[in-house]
């Protein structure tokens, strides 16, 4: 069969490396810092790395990049593992922690010192910045740059032994203060920090800097292709320098791709954290967020996220994707998999005057007309029903084909009814709608006598199950954009609507956390895993049925 899908640029690099013998088997990794929950952007990176390992029958490692103890927490380690498992990326027995390599990193630093490629520097952070130069001017050598190997070894050991205070000394790579790439101007590779680490406790009071630690972690694990986002492009010469000078025979190769951004959606960990800490959202898994935990709670599926990531593709230039594309993906995934059932979000009572009191009949209703495999269910019908308030109007505008006085509509899967009367309370609010039904229009009877233009859904009052339904909008006010001038977020104050008096057909009784359904004519909804209880169901609207999104050709 001819190949129709063209390879992305990363696949092309990998295939060339394999063909030319630069590596024999592919090994990728996902290296999150455990300082927050993962979001949709991370999902892209996870699925990309995992997908490449699968495609080339290689390995995918999971590694926590926990070299900065100030912001890291065990809580995040657990949530990250759960999210990656849920997405389906399997690291098998290769779960690693950068902190497990602290000793080897220390030894690598000693190797550099012995080669005359690293030195202990006494300049303050401020002075280091001044000496660094600018984009247009070269930097200046540190006065400590020419310390002897012996002195450097001695001082570095003292740093490790806790003989210096935070910031008093650092270890720097000795590269080139005149390099056009500022990252190469004798970067700091170790700092003193007297803080406990969530895994190594007080064993260390020096910690490696990201640009030194990361290439080493990759190299220790035999990672062949270290895939990261574009902001690290300028760091690649340093990455290559570290693995070469420390002396790895098959150094990993860093490849950068563009981050995934969603238009008008908050993805940055820093901002999500702020929303959580300020109590604006209900935790990291608030269904309005795009953290993976939030998407899962809202009712997104791993399949929908995979589809989304595939549609986004892999690129070298930053761009932003419309949230509607994510909605398209979840609709596509749920369309044939989920039952379509009746739920009334804003109920008003409908009474069928000529239907026998106390009688209940059951209609056999297919669960999904497009997928017979989902079977059918029994739906009770009786004299008193509930319908959506918006499906009735006293004085309908033109082209309103639902219920109004004198009009006949189809009650979905049941009978034709004609509105004969209605009642209102003192405030003018409709309290009851009265209809008559025509027994010969029974669904399934093959009745062809006449047609009606409107079909509305309903639930039988006596058997209905109460539920709360939450409707979500973007937490950002899209008209104003994501950020204010001062960097704060432009919040949409109406991002959550809680409907407390919803009524569902009895088939919902078995619904459990994370189960999702199509509510006919409304959208897709998922049982909230945090707040729903068997006798007090809570649903999140995942997405409405309507979409303006068109798949790009
Ligand atoms: P954030 O900027 O949201 O805080 P981060 O980059 O600090 O994220 P890390 O834990 O350092 O988060 O990232 C783990 C991996 O995920 C890195 O390889 C990073 O490049 C990748 N990644 C982070 N954000 C995105 C994104 N929006 N799209 C694709 N990959 C991303
Ligand atoms: Mg980061």
TrEMBL record:
Residues 455-528 form the tRNA synthetases class I (E and Q) anti-codon binding domain. It catalyses: tRNA(Gln) + L-glutamine + ATP = L-glutaminyl-tRNA(Gln) + AMP + diphosphate. The keyword 4Fe-4S does not apply. Its main location: cytoplasm. It is an enzyme of class 6 (ligase). Belongs to the class-I aminoacyl-tRNA synthetase family. HAMAP family: Gln_tRNA_synth. This is Glutamine--tRNA ligase. It comes from Diplocloster modestus. The gene is glnS.
